[in-house]
Task: inverse folding
């Protein structure tokens, strides 16, 4: 039976809504250029995305900058043809979703934000396998639309927007003090990274100096968060491959990290500690933190060694959900997803912030496989690197002094740079996380935009699933990416 | 004893006469269950129970904690709780997050697909009243105005121990060990 499936791509959200094409602004003149454009009365900023400059990229660096979409009050007819896509064009992955998101906020009606145009596959024996939003296991609500022929997956469309909470919209008016709590709820498993990026952007806007003790504790909290997130992701991967014993072992380790966090900060996910200007209070000193980390490392190594000998585990991972190299080069996934494709971008090394600027960061983990095994391997290496770095930092001692900037919270209105958009980048467990803060024109309410790692990385999932995988691989591929839905439906 | 039961069966057979005679205990598909059957849902549920989880707008934190329920530190299977992929096999619905308009019909449909008697546990502060997310412009309505909620478990996210307590409260059973009988600790 020879069947030639015809794949037709529906026009992307940008063309449908008639929004002007995104423009590109280089990083150097980002603030002034944006401020100049926004000073025009009709212009309104629609979406921002950041194209990482990749100093460690294979095949040389490409131009870097921001992708910016403006709305100038002029309605344009929807474009009928897809724009030409040159290889040097920056990633629009985040912009398309962000634009649809903004349009949804603008109208009352609902516009589905999809990371990829919905595939329409025609051919004899081709079926649509709808999955979600309520799907097996404990998972976040997202719609999967798998086009299958027999067992083979031909294409995948993802439907987001089931659980949009409009957090981003509320975060600006909430201001720097109350907004942290909202930022912590964008992704429940990485609240420290979100709080750090939110606080970082506001600290840049308000020109606040964060004391060294706060930088130290913030970095320690962020690495503990990476540990629990990665251990949970690895346990989910073991579960998806049908190895409940390995999953149980890894879940026990995750629970150990969560209990250490609970005793240090009073919250299992360390919420409520980061504030703009520092941290609220110093974490409790837990005497068995270092022995606990050593024990977690030993048990983790033992478990990983056993997994490395389980052929039933490795067979399911090798080659499954391989991100095509061309897709990875165009869309530039970030975090473990990107580092598993050989794009070693890591904010902690390439744009060091906080403590990483002075004392370095856990070793960069890069694998060039691009498949589920690559993502598994990167997470394993990062867990080990984080534990080593944490123990080193804790042994080196804590800088004394205050844990937060002293004095009243400055007002952005009397800052000379008050007109600029300020941003902060943080390496969250799932990759580069950016917060943009714009205090606004005089009298306007502040404006906050979030670009999460998952919002970028979801775009590489459809091409990774729709190439040479069978239906039984899908849960494993999903678990190997382990992306957050709430980071897209924010 | 078995023989006596068999003798009783001869007088009143267990097999329904349904297609030929009306049988109030047998309902064709699509017929709403009568009130008398729904009333059964009030008492405690003492069987082993299947749980279905639905995310109506959560941050992912409750999901992370629910996944730990089956892990060795908590292991709710020792109390007879299991997770099921289909709402049609579920006795308990675990709802996480603040209800978004897009998830409202999905939630309703999931609840209606579950057989009676059934219970609903809402997890997290955002499912109940005073969280900023519950007052968000995206939240359509209070959860309990869409489906009947038996128990609200507070916390952001609620820790696994609180979820276990919530499950026991929802099914109307005392926590094992709460009456000094040791339980399955």
Result:
């Amino acid at each position: 039976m020879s069947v030639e499936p015809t794949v037709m791509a529906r026009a992307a959200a940008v063309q449908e809504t008639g929004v002007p094409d995104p423009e590109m602004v280089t990083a150097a003149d980002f603030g002034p250029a944006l401020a100049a454009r926004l000073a025009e009365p009709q212009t309104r900023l629609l979406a921002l995305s950041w194209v990482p400059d990749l100093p460690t990229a294979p095949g040389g660096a490409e131009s870097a900058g921001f992708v910016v979409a403006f709305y100038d009050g002029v309605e344009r007819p929807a474009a009928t043809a897809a724009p030409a896509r040159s290889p040097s064009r920056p990633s629009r992955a985040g912009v398309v979703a962000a634009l649809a998101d903004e349009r949804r906020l603008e109208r009352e009606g609902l516009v589905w934000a999809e990371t990829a145009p919905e595939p329409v596959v025609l051919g004899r024996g081709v079926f649509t396998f709808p999955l979600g939003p309520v799907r097996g296991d404990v998972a976040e609500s997202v719609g999967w639309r798998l086009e299958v022929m027999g067992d083979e997956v031909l294409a995948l469309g993802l439907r987001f927007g089931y659980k949009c909470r409009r957090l981003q919209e509320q975060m600006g008016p909430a201001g720097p003090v109350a907004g942290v709590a909202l930022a912590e709820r964008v992704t429940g498993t990485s609240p420290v990274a979100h709080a750090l990026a939110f606080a970082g952007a506001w600290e840049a806007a308000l020109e606040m100096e964060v004391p060294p003790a706060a930088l130290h504790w913030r970095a320690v909290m962020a690495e503990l968060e990476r540990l629990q997130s990665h251990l949970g992701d690895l346990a989910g991967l073991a579960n998806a491959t049908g190895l409940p014993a390995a999953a149980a072992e890894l879940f026990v380790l995750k629970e150990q990290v969560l209990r250490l966090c609970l005793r240090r900060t009073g919250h299992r996910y360390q919420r409520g500690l980061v504030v703009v200007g520092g941290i609220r209070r110093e974490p409790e000193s837990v005497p068995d933190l270092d022995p606990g980390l050593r024990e977690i490392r030993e048990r983790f190594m033992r478990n990983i060694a056993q997994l490395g000998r389980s052929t039933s585990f490795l067979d399911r991972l090798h080659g499954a959900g391989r991100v095509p190299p061309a897709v990875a080069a165009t869309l530039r996934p970030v975090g473990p997803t990107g580092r598993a494709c050989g794009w070693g971008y890591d904010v902690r090394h390439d744009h060091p912030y906080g403590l990483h600027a002075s004392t370095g960061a856990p070793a960069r983990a890069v694998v060039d496989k691009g498949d589920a095994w690559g993502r598994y391997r990167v997470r394993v290496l990062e867990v080990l690197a984080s534990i080593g770095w944490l123990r080193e930092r804790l042994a080196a001692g804590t800088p004394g002094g205050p844990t937060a900037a002293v004095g009243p919270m400055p007002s952005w209105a009397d800052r000379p740079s008050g007109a600029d958009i300020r941003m902060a980048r943080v390496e969250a467990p799932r990759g580069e996380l950016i917060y943009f803060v714009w205090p606004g024109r005089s009298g306007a309410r502040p404006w906050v935009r979030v670009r999460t790692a998952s919002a970028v990385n979801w775009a590489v999932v459809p091409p990774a699933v729709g190439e040479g995988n069978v239906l039984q691989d899908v849960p494993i591929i999903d678990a190997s990416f382990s992306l957050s839905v709430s980071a897209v439906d924010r | 004893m078995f023989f006596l039961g068999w003798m009783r069966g001869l007088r009143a057979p267990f097999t329904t006469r349904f297609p030929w005679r009306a049988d109030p205990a047998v309902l064709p598909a699509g017929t709403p269950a009568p009130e008398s059957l729904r009333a059964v849902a009030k008492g405690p549920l003492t069987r082993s129970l299947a749980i279905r989880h639905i995310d109506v707008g959560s941050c992912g934190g409750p999901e992370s904690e629910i996944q730990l329920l089956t892990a060795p530190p908590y292991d709710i299977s020792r109390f007879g709780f299991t997770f099921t992929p289909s709402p049609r096999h579920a006795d308990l619905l675990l709802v996480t997050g603040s209800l978004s308009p897009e998830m409202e019909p999905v939630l309703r449909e999931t609840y209606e697909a579950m057989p009676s008697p059934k219970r609903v546990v809402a997890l997290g502060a955002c499912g109940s009243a005073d969280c900023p997310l519950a007052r968000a412009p995206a939240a359509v309505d209070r959860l309990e105005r869409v489906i009947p909620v038996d128990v609200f478990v507070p916390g952001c996210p609620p820790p696994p121990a609180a979820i276990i307590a919530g499950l026991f409260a929802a099914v109307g059973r005392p926590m094992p060990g709460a009456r000094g009988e040791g339980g399955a600790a």
Notes: The beta strands of chain B are 49-55, 81-83, 92-96, 119-123, 151-153. Chain B has five helices and five strands. Chain B touches chain A at residues 52-68, 71-73, 83, 85, 87, 97-98, 100-103, 106, 110, 126, 132-133, 136-139, 156-157, 159 (CB under 8 Å).
